[in-house]
Design brief:
Layout (H helix, E strand, L loop, with lengths): L4 H127 L2 H19 L6
């Protein structure tokens, strides 16, 4: 059986429709996917540009931090030097305090000896006064009272 031109034409149309039916949605889907990919690429480019800006800012911040660290290290070195000087001064002060402590102790001992001497002298004076008569004792006390009043700037009635 031979196919007529009309049959051939119909077969062609059916094949073309079949090819269009099969490939048309695929091309539409591909075009949609390509459009989505283009949109994603634009968004990625924007994100990369933002990341580049952030990296530049981060590099600037890191440079600032490095500068701060160098300054802090310098300050620490200065503080260590100052602390060494302070410790040296403290040692000198401790030695001076030890020396002064010894001198104060010697002065305390001298003052104790003076008190003992004064106490002994008072006892000697008391023994001498005990030998005086009552009239001599009163005259001596009166003379001491007048002398003490003079030193204090007080005028006693006579």
């Amino acid at each position: 059986m031979a196919l007529s031109k009309e049959d051939m034409q119909q077969i062609r149309e059916v094949i073309i429709e079949g090819v269009e039916a099969v490939t048309g949605p695929r091309f539409d889907a591909l075009e949609s996917d390509v459009a989505e990919l283009k949109s994603d690429v634009v968004e990625l480019k924007s994100d990369v540009a933002e990341l580049k800006s952030d990296v530049v800012e981060l590099k600037s911040d890191v440079a600032g931090l490095k500068s701060d660290v160098v300054e802090l290290k310098s300050d620490v070195i200065g503080l260590k030097t100052d602390m060494a000087e302070v410790m040296g001064s403290v040692r000198v002060l401790n030695m001076s305090m030890d020396e002064l402590s010894g001198r104060v102790e010697a002065l305390e001992n001298d003052i104790k000896e003076i008190y003992i001497m004064l106490a002994n002298e008072t006892q000697i004076t008391d023994k001498k006064i005990a030998k005086f008569s009552l009239e001599e004792k009163l005259l001596k006390l009166n003379a001491e009272l007048i002398s003490t009043a003079k030193q204090a700037g007080i005028v006693l009635p006579r």
